[in-house]
Amino acid sequence: MYLTTIDMSRNHLNGSVPIEIGSLINLISLDLSNNRFTGVITEEHFANLTSLKEIDLSSNNLNILLNSDWRPPSTLESAGFASCQMGPLFPPWLQRLKTNGLDISSNALKGKFPDWFWSAFSHANYLNISNNQISGSLPTHMDGMAFKELYLGSNRLTGPIPTFPTNITKLDISNNTFSETIPSNLEASQLEVLSMHSNQIGGYIPESICKLQQLAYLDLSNNILEGEIPQCFDIFNIEFLILGNNSLSGKIPTFLQNNTDMKFLDLAWNKFSGRLPTWIGKLVNLRFLILGHNKFSDNIPVGITKLGYLQYLDLSGNSFSGAIPWHLSNLTFMTTLQNTKGQHLIYHNQLKYFVGIDLSCNSLTGEIPKDLTSLDALVNFNLSSNQLSGQIPNMIGAMQSLESLDLSRNNLSGEIPSSLSSLTSLSYLNLSYNSLSGRIPSGHQLDTLNTENPSIMYIGNNGLCGPPVHKNCPGNDPSTSSDLERSKEEFDPLTFYFGLVLGFLMGLWMVFCALLFKKTWRVAYFRLFDKVYDQVYVFVAVKWASFGKNTDAE
Q1: Where in the cell (predicted)?
Q2: Which of 73, 301, 359, 516 is deepest in the core (most CB within 10 A)?
């Protein structure tokens, strides 16, 4: 029986990789990824692995140190060295791997691609070189290369975007410094994922993007694109459309209403205008609707309340008017508690754990709908800088997942609900610049907010009183309050009687000492005593004689 497969991935194994592994001549697949191995990988580890087809040493603290003239004993189908150390320059032995799949991401590689690189791997199906410090440009024509998945994100690549490989299904060139425009002739008919965010790509989105009928994920955010989105009536598969932070304009394209599988729509920080279409409620699988900081106007359509899977709604920084739609309690995903406290939320992958509503910086009027308090999974709630009136809902304390609450710069009135003090997850609160009045509720969580200047979250509400603002509530004079507190102290009988006896003895002892050492006081004392004695004796004798006469008469 021969050992052909070793899979020890995703454990907590540590130490060095034993050299003896190189003697397993029948080994076909070796996977030690996602462990804590350290040390150096040398030629001895591969000495007799003549049958090896797949190797994955990714996500360890290994140094791949092979001689520049080293030749692998077999032809590898896939090799994974992600998060290992093999830089800063591309090691020459890479060109002799002849592998169909290579992952050298997060390897601290620097400099430009070697001359041999693209010819050595042009036949590969999978190539991941992301998260390094590689500079320079890409080959002008890549349409003849065999790549199906190509990941070049988070490097320092520059220059124009080349033509896409014909068979490509997933392409990521994000977080670089690519410039100029998107190629006008996009022929990658099998492309499903295209990520080009965070570059310096300008111009218009070409009409040829409508040919990418398999496209499900498109991220062109954080560039300098302009113009309108092409009306791609044939693209019905798109689920993630992320175009935020550009200079795009026009209205939300109507073809999107046919994409009922859409999950993520981000058009924020652009120049889109007009009304938010009523058909937005047809996108029943939508999870993220991010339209903040555009020029949208008119009312927020009631159809939004039909988006039961919605977990993040951002309409901030527009010109929406009218009332906040009622029945937002229909956003049922926001009533499912999520554990997000303290998590670092990264825009493109961990945002799935975030639940929030941001309607700030609009012209919304009316009251805060009371049914909003049923959204007990809401983490961020921002209604600031509107024209909302009425009171803060009394049941706001039911929103137990709230970490951030901003109702500042509105026309809210009445008292702050005492239930606010029960929000144990709250880490940010701003109620400033309203018309709130009455006593500010206290509580352990509220007392820990903004400890440097806690009153700032209540500033601009002249009717509020009590800590932390410097205004006492009516009937709350400090001296009266302290006297009242002292009067409420518990009575202790033992202490009272002990003090009474001690006082009596001290007084008697002081009188005795005075009579003993002061002659004049002694004489005066006994004279007073004799005088009192005589008066008492006479009084008693007279009364007794009178009593005797009355008895004889009877």
Answers
A1: Cell membrane
A2: 359
Identify the three-state secondary structure at position 549.
helix
447, two tokens: 């007392």
Query: Count of CB atoms within 10 A of residue 242's CB?
Result: 22
Distance CA 155, CA 147 (A): 19
Q: Which helix (H) or strand (E) holds 400?
A: none
The half-sphere exposure of 325 on its side-chain side, counting CA atoms within 13 A, is 21
Write the single-letter amino acid at 128. N
> CB count, 10 Å around CB of 125?
17
Contact of 96 with 71, CB cutoff 8 Å: yes
Per-residue confidence at 352, pLDDT binned at 50, 70, 90?
A: low
Inter-residue contact 511 to 517 (CB < 8 Å): no
- Are 514 and 423 part of one and the same domain? no
d(CA 34, CA 259): 38
The pLDDT mean for the chain works out to 85
* pLDDT mean over 52-81: 92
- What lies within 8 Å, CB to CB, of 540 at 6+ separation is none
Q: Are residues 408 and 274 in the same domain?
A: yes
For 156, phi and psi rounded to 5 degrees? -125, 35
Q: Residue 68's pLDDT is what? A: 85
CA angle 385, 353, 393 (to 5 degrees): 40
Lowest mean pLDDT among 8-17, 425-434, 451-460, 487-496: 487-496
| Mutual angle of helices 493-517 and 519-553, in 10-degree steps | 110
Query: Is pLDDT above 60 for 389?
Result: yes
Residue 413: both structure tokens together: 């009135």
C-alpha span between 160 and 138 (Å, rounded): 8
Percentage with pLDDT > 90 across the chain: 66
Average pLDDT value for residue range 332-339: 75
pLDDT confidence of residue 337: 60
pLDDT of residue 233: 62
Q: Is 465 exposed, middle or buried (0-12, 13-18, 19+ CB in 10 A)?
A: middle
> What is the count of structural domains for the chain?
3
Question: In 10 A of CB 483, how many CB atoms?
Answer: 11
CA–CA distance, 362 with 508 (Å, rounded to integer): 83
76-85, 235-244, 473-482, 527-536: which range is least confident on average?
A: 527-536
Q: What is the domain range of residue 530?
A: 510-548
Verify that 359 and 257 share a domain, yes or no: yes
* Number of separate helices (H) and strands (E) present in the chain: 5, 35
